[in-house]
Design a protein that fits this description.
The chain is mainly α. It is built from 4 helices and no strands. Helix 3 runs antiparallel to helix 4.
Length: 147
Amino acid sequence: MGSPASPRSGGAPADPERGETTDPRIAELARQLNEAIEAAEATGQAGARETAIEVLKEPARERALAERQAEGLARAASRGMNPFALGLPLLPVGVFMFFLFPPVGLLIFLLGLGSCLAGAVQAMVGSIRGRIAGGTEIPDQVGSEAG
């Protein structure tokens, strides 16, 4: 009773000690794949087993990539909006409004300038914290190579 069933008998090969159970359809597909690999290797087509393993690993790689991307998006969303991005459009709007209604234009321009400065300071502080915490290295010049 403790031995796994044979794929030819229609049972699912599984390791009950590790709590694994296999769907009978998967067991049948695995048996068919094994037969196809053996037939391919018998006719001299080398590498059939490696190709099958790569094909089976591909969905796991795609899942891992999707998880990393989702994690990166969640991290970016948790940081919130950079005030620099808000300040950039306020600067030209403030200049334009200055000619129509100077007090409002000056106020909007100063608000944009303060927002840009706050965003720049926030970015610098975040970069310094990342370097202190052992984050990724940011190259000083893009495209320059050491050596």
